[in-house]
Amino acid sequence: MRDGATDDLHVATACPLDCPDACSLTVSVRDGRIVELDGGHASDVTRGYICAKVRRFPERMYGPDRVRYPMVRTGRKGSGEFSRVSWDEALEKIASEITRVRDTISPEAILPFCYGGSNGLLTQDAVDMVLFRRLGASRLLRTVCAAPTGAANQALYGKMPSVVYQDYPETKLLILWGVNPGVSGIHAIPYIRAAQKNGAKLVVIDPRTTPQARAADLHLAIKPGTDVVVALAVHRYLFESGHADQAFLDAHTTGAELLRAKAAEWTFERAAEVAGVAAADLQQLAHWYAGSSPALVRCGWGLERNRNGGNASLAVLALPAVGGKFGVRGGGYAMSNSAAWGFTRPWLDAPEPPTRAINMNQLGEVLTEPPSPPVSLLFVYNCNPAATIPDQARVLRGLERDDLFTVVFEQVLTDTVPYADVVLPATTFLEHYDFAKGYGPITMQLTQPVVEPIGEAKSNADVFFDLGRRLGLFDEEQGRGELDSLLRVLNDLPPQVGSDLKATGVARPQWDGAPVQFVDVFPRTADAKVHLFPADLDREAPAGLYAYQPDPASDRFPLALISPASDRTISSTLGELTRPEVRLVIHPDDASARQIGDGEDVRIWNELGEVRCRAQVGTWIRPGTVVLPKGLWRRHTANGYTATALAPATLTDIGGGACFNDARVQVERAGARQQAPGGA
Ligand SMILES: Nc1nc2c(c(=O)[nH]1)N[C@H]1C(S)=C(S)[C@@H](COP(=O)(O)OP(=O)(O)OC[C@H]3O[C@@H](n4cnc5c(=O)[nH]c(N)nc54)[C@H](O)[C@@H]3O)O[C@H]1N2
Ligand SMILES: Nc1nc2c(c(=O)[nH]1)N[C@H]1C(S)=C(S)[C@@H](COP(=O)(O)OP(=O)(O)OC[C@H]3O[C@@H](n4cnc5c(=O)[nH]c(N)nc54)[C@H](O)[C@@H]3O)O[C@H]1N2
Ligand SMILES: [Mo]
Hints:
alpha/beta; six-stranded mixed sheet; 23 helices; 18% strand
């Protein structure tokens, strides 16, 4: 479409970044350059507006931190000294290193390392995965996020599609549990407000007083990691007060009696003591939940990132089954809808080899205490592990290893790039094709290139295809890169989805994108029942199902540190843009006990590391808990370490997930300021 007045070109596309909303976009282009990015109307929920950070995406594309051409390392690892080479030289070097490691050590000494850069169907688990499978590389367990909630949702319901934003206004009780949509999925907010306007009560369960908590009828500012006992106290009430839906339990579930037995010990008083809230508030929550229909639990990811995260997710997601909340529009649960489409990836035509699996949360340990065979070649793409993986100091030590060959395929000069032996420039979603699949709203949209690639940047599909051919793993039959992959995916998608995407750029599932649970969609477990006490998870969890493992706080490290999503970045993506100074949020009681005033320099530390920045004293965090944002870059703190330096590399009880919100720390005044913080 051309704009008569300015002659700008307006291109419709979609945002595939790691956020539930998957916004449709309108991008304005002038003389081959993007001049504006705004919301589109193709998706049902974008409604013409987008978040402030993605609006700034052109600054990222054209900015000074952009990787524009391939480079090889010339200085020591971490120094960031590189010289420019051609694509041919860079790929030949990588191919020869892959061959060397494969032939002289083991194919399993190669580890592809990728996560959430783009959640699209083309940029991940496509050509890249075929290449690494054919090589026989180690497999990566992609557990840094959503592993516990995913395992719980899978075991209970086989990841049945869940309630979408559009149906929130139908509910009478909305519980936002460990989720902060005002930051992490902003298009939910108008629907939450509509629900409240329609008379719904709002409950927020979060250690922070988020804006949604402020607007809530009830805010439970629980201690991090105690969600499992809060949910079990509600279960106990439902079972013991006659509010469990016995007919539903008999017809549609297994294991209800075992869950009931686990919940029995959690009286409101006991659970309140563990969670650090008033018993009367727990009772209020239970009464409202028992008495409301439709009632909706919107489960987020804040509650999964601790030692009890898997059991917490199970207990929370099991509530609508016990309470009988399914079968009505606006009732049930809302969790990730990433699996809602229900198709696997037929274009992934290389079977998964039975090679070694490495949990990505343990990268630091894997690199510094090498297993046999060691990881000798690390191929990083769609991920920024130097900033986002737990135990940052150890990850960085591992990346410094001289006998490790590291490839970083990136859009910008992230904190991981300085550790690369070879850097490859990647296109962004405004320069390549992709499929944007939301995990809040259930839509799929075509992402298309809006401008020519910047510098010599190339798409994942093109680069992995080229590399595979150099290694003799691909021939012409696998196509020639991105466009062939695009067509392959379009043809392999379910027919209606593929043809809708071709015709309009957007597809919705058959129930028009807004399924009612137990009316339009049902559990996708083998027997179509809800498994309230899944035996395999019971064996996996160290203390068994629905167990609470106590708070690890000690006299040395008495404070819990959490690092929730911020409105400045998506994980660490966009962290290169200027942002306000980063501060540690601390409650006035904790601050005054340490003689810390607002704005003073502090040192936050534990046995894994230390972070230095300034304090922000505020009552919007419960006493005993402190907050740093997720997704910081090393330049954002005074000493170059972030919250991930304090996050333990221990795993969650279920799913092998990351424990970002399970850090225990001490905080003290840092005295005179040594060094100004980076950023703006
Ligand atoms: N702007 C923005 N949007 C994002 C992202 C981003 O980085 N920035 N990240 C995207 C990604 S990758 C994800 S996974 C999602 C995450 O989306 P959310 O789940 O909303 O993200 P978080 O901020 O990690 O956690 C939500 C809330 O949980 C609270 N919390 C922390 N610990 C606990 C606990 O033990 N129990 C309870 N009940 N609450 C707790 C935090 O205070 C926070 O307010 O957001 C996506 N959207
Ligand atoms: N302290 C703390 N840390 C956390 C969390 C927390 O709660 N607290 N939460 C975690 C969560 S929820 C998540 S999901 C992880 C995410 O952690 P990561 O997977 O590391 O995600 P990002 O930080 O977004 O980094 C993605 C990188 O991929 C690149 N990229 C994007 N698209 C492409 C592409 O098409 N090709 C290539 N080659 N590269 C591309 C981007 O430029 C970006 O640098 O972070 C985790 N880190
Ligand atoms: Mo995430």
